[in-house]
Amino acid sequence: MAKIDAAIQSVLDGHTYILGEAVKQFEAEFAAYTGAKFAIGVANGTDALHLALRALGIGEGDEVITTAHTAIATVAAIEMSGATPIFADITADRYTLDPVDVARKITPRTKAILPVHLYGHPADLGPLLELAARHNLEIIEDCAQAHAAEWQGRQVGTIGKIGCFSLYPTKNLGAIGDAGIVITSDEAVADRLRLLRQYGWRDKQLSLISGFNSRLDELQAAILRVKLRHLDETTARRRAIAKAYSEAFADLPLTLPRDIDGCLNVYHLYVLRTPKREDLKAHLAKQNIHAGIHYPIPCHRHPALADRCADLRLPVTEQLAEQILSLPMYPELTDGQVERVIRAVRSFYTGA
């Protein structure tokens, strides 16, 4: 906290509060950390996705294939761009886009595939990249829950044309307020993103293109610079907690998360599956352990989308929504608290 307090004070002592030196430094450090050439700070993760789509010229009349098993923000960003979200089903092992169903959903109007690296585990990018190359589509990665996750030795966000990160307070790398960042190694795309985030300005008060207002502020950037230096440490702690859970539950009738070959899971959430989800959740609540559901209602079943998706069936997505349960997962959990969660889950099945 002392380092964060000092970072905040340094901003308060300065004269710039929006898109200043702290933002420039954080952008450079985040780009270097991920292995991207460029990083562009924005106001939040939804804007990161929205501006990414706009930067690639995707909008009215275009379709973007994504998952319904995600936070609604993913869908909101597509709609903000003017494009239409098209939902494909997910696989039962990664809980991310099923490339086979994605292939079925491609039409002449499809312009991009937007995989979500959900819960901290990378999507199945290999087949998606092949589909994108075959059909001349862009890949925009939603990395909101996957800071530092890896696919084939590369950090997510650097695989497709653009990677988009939320820096919301609960994320693996979180601000103390709203924040987001976009990464790319395409210089022209990076330049367009910078224009789009602030009214189309390159020079102050001269709009070169129509743009928006989505700026990362200095306070958040200064805080994020401090927290970025500890991201490897907090990621290791998340993985240690996940390992403890998985080892303790290996003999129970549960479907547990894991690292699929070639992937590094950063465990934004620890999500297990059980047909007894509601009973287990209630059992944990009686012991003052909060377990969440991410996400109980797939996006295509939200009231805002239900009419246009009335006939859409996503069998794996819909089944998972009834079975998933998120156990407590954050790096500040003590070993004692982790053990208490383990005992509580095991007691549901063993009665001990």
Automatic annotation (TrEMBL):
Q: Does the keyword Translocase apply?
A: no
Name the Gene3D superfamilies on file.
Aspartate Aminotransferase, domain 1 (3.90.1150.10), Type I PLP-dependent aspartate aminotransferase-like (Major domain) (3.40.640.10)
GO biological process, any:
polysaccharide biosynthetic process
Point out residues bearing the modification N6-(pyridoxal phosphate)lysine. K171
Q: Which GO terms describe its molecular function?
A: pyridoxal phosphate binding; transaminase activity
For this protein, the record's Pfam families field holds: DegT_DnrJ_EryC1 (PF01041)
Q: Where is the active site?
A: K171 (proton acceptor)
Q: What is this protein called?
A: Erythromycin biosynthesis sensory transduction protein eryC1
